[in-house]
Amino acid sequence: MTDKLKPIIPRKQFMDLIEEKGLDDFTTINFKCLKYVSGNISMTELFYIVMAVSLFRPKWIMEFGTFNGRTTLNMAINCSDSNIVTVDLPRNKKHRTKFPLEDKGNQRGLDESGYVGNKAKLWKGQDPDIVNRITQVWEDSAKLKFGFYKNKFDFLFIDASHTYENCKNDSYNGHKIIKKNGIIFWHDYGGWPGVIEALNEYYLEQGKPKDMYWFNDTSIVGRFF
User: Fold this and answer.
1) In CATH, which of 3.40.50.150, 3.40.50.2300, 3.50.50.60, 3.40.50.300 is domain 3-224?
2) Could you tell me where the DSSP H helices lie in 101-219?
3) SS3 state at 89
4) Are strands 134-138 and 221-224 parallel, antiparallel or unpaired?
5) Phi, psi of 127, rounded to the nearest 5 degrees
6) Given the DSSP bridges, would you call strands 153-158 and 134-138 parallel, antiparallel or unpaired?
7) Which of 174, 147, 154, 172 is nearest to 87 (CA)?
8) CA-CA-CA-CA torsion sign (16, 85, 173, 195)
9) Domain limits of the chain?
10) pLDDT of residue 25
């Protein structure tokens, strides 16, 4: 493994961070649609994300990479005053992205093209209060016009394409739209080479930010602004 593909972001226990932030960790969390399918985040990761939005109470959330909406739905349930914008790549654009996706033809044998454009979102048919707070955007995140969203969001979850080019692009666009005191979570650090390389580069270019951690027992990296 080359040095640029070795994880360098410091590890942290998520609950230690919550304690350091002075947050009361007494909160009621509700889950729906917990069945895991390939492409979903782990139950531990879902728990941390849901706890984060439950405790920090973001008003505006953006998710890069909707897949089947399992994470989207559970964030909406546990942060009842939030509005969520979730971006997914439509199937008819998966071969016309700004940057290439990982597919079975690459040397690493990784494939993500089959996870895009999933129409069966798990929030469909849920309580209208939940559904009405979720906005689905069908677009390549690398082609999305972010000027409209500048300094708008309190919480971002970046889990779209895992190539270096896409993860880097999503990270820097996310940096533009996050508010002061906002939070960004990234998924799949430590597993996908492109994510490791992009986040290592981001971490170093930001001057090794003291509030950026790789949470133990997960592939999630969090940065607190």
Assistant:
1) 3.40.50.150
2) 128-131, 164-177, 193-205
3) coil
4) unpaired
5) -50, 135
6) unpaired
7) 174
8) positive
9) 3-224
10) 64
Query: What is the rounded distance in angstroms from the CA atom of residue 39 to the CA atom of residue 52?
Result: 21
User: Residue 38 carries which DSSP code?
Assistant: B
pLDDT at 141: 96
pLDDT of residue 120: 86
- Nearest Cα to Cα of residue 188 among 164, 212, 224, 154: 164
Q: Mean pLDDT over residues 69-73, rounded? A: 98
Q: How far apart are CA 180 and CA 170, in angstroms?
A: 18
Tokens 């942060």 found at: 79
Residue type, 49: I
- Burial (0-12, 13-18, 19+ Cβ within 10 Å), 80: exposed
Helices 164-177 + 193-205 axis angle, to 10: 40
Per-residue pLDDT reduced to its tens digit, 173-219: 999 999 999 999 999 999 899 999 999 999 999 999 999 999 999 99
SS3 206: coil
Question: Tokens representing 161?
Answer: 């394409």
Gap between the Cα atoms of 225 and 180, Å rounded? 6
d(CA 209, CA 74): 29
Other residues' Cβ atoms within 10 Å of the Cβ of residue 200: 18
What is the rounded distance in angstroms from the CA atom of residue 73 to the CA atom of residue 59? 15
Distance CA 52, CA 48 (A): 6
Question: Any residues with CB less than 8 A from the CB of 36 and at least 6 apart, and which?
Answer: 42, 43
Beta bridge partners of 195: none
